[in-house]
Amino acid sequence: MEGSTLDSVVRVAYLVAAILFILGLKQLGRVRTARRGNQLAGVAMLIAVIATLGRVEVIDAKWILIGAVVGGLVGAVAAVRVPMTKMPEFVAIFNGSGGGASALVAMSVVWVAVIQREASGTMAANLGVAPAATVVLSVLIGSVTLSGSVVAYLKLAGTIGGKPTLLPARHVLNAVLLVGSLVLGGVLAFATTDLGQIELLILALAAASLVLGVLLVIPIGGADMPVVISLLNSYSGLAAAMTGFVLGNNLLIISGATVGAAGLILTKVMCDAMNRSLANVVFGGFGAADSTGTSTGGGEYTNVTSASPEEAAMLLEDAESVIIAPGYGLAVAQAQHAVRELADLLKHRGCRVRYAIHPVAGRMPGHMNVLLAEADVPYEELVEMEHINPEFKDTDVVIVIGANDVVNPDALENEQSPIYGMPILNVREARTVFVVKRSLGAGFAGIKNTLFEAPNTNMVFGDAKKVVTEMVSELKAAS
Is residue 51 within 8 Å of residue 288, measured between CB atoms? Predict the structure, then answer.
């Protein structure tokens, strides 16, 4: 095929892939169409890869084949073996992989086009001003995304603990690293002509950016991970877009910019849901207090009423409407299938059952939706916070499973509370509330939850899966 014809075919393929990417992303915005959106994005990626391979003139096909086989096997095994409860960690690694790949591609362009060719002049003179600048940004953003995502993964997995690690003068250190990285990038792109210095500077830029990524995420509490993951997702998109400018690849620019914009929008939604600014999440170290339940909550619990699973089941027998409010504890206990069984029993008895979904419940955006989808909970039963809140006052029973701060009335009533102003699920307005929790321990804010002392609240202590399973047994025995 002639060069001009091939270029035309590749451009058309890129246009089709870009349209499919955008359509797929749009469909990912709704649970009902998310699967189809993911499939469209997969087809778009396949088209993009094939078109790109057809455009490359000099390549060793065996490395492409090896990479495709290894990557495909890793993806397939991970998709099958990683449980839904580990999806936050999986997404964090995906973000980091995208950022790392962008950084490596940008570095490889410098290696092939400048160092290996022993080109004279600055990097900007050899690549162009815009490509040289975007090489620096791609390495910087990609490396920050990689190391930050690894730290997020380790926090979510519990390897290094979810609490913030607040280093002395961390803001000054971060500022020095950021400014230093930009200075290194400026010298690399526009000042030095020595090939040895270019090689050394790009490695130093990557190293400084990796350290910066670690220091940016280490101070963030584990419960802020929905915001952090969406932000890192945005970073990975921006890194890809910068790499697109380096390569002159319009599809990479479009797809990267789309992911970057979507990630930023989602980050804004997450911050609004917590009534906090992005700066407060990234720099505030929220959650640093000891999570004992009394650290900043103004005293110990005094009027807590507890109930057994049997007592809860007795009340559920006569309930006409039940709302289940899931939280991270549901994921930890892997109780989603038991909850689905409980809901099915209640519906069989003529009870209306719905699930109240708070935007930041869990450890990643949409965590509760994904978790409940694994148990085949019908989409129409998952109701977002703004739609379910008006219905609590007409609800017989609310079962809170593993949620804490997202149901804490202090967010509405206590102006001194660190979560004051954060939108919450108004579960307290229901006739009866059962809170399934291992203990009275605090959530990520490290504060007392006044819901636990409300006169219509009963604490059901224990592992969520075990408690719900006992409720199911009691309901079955009563049938």
Answer: no
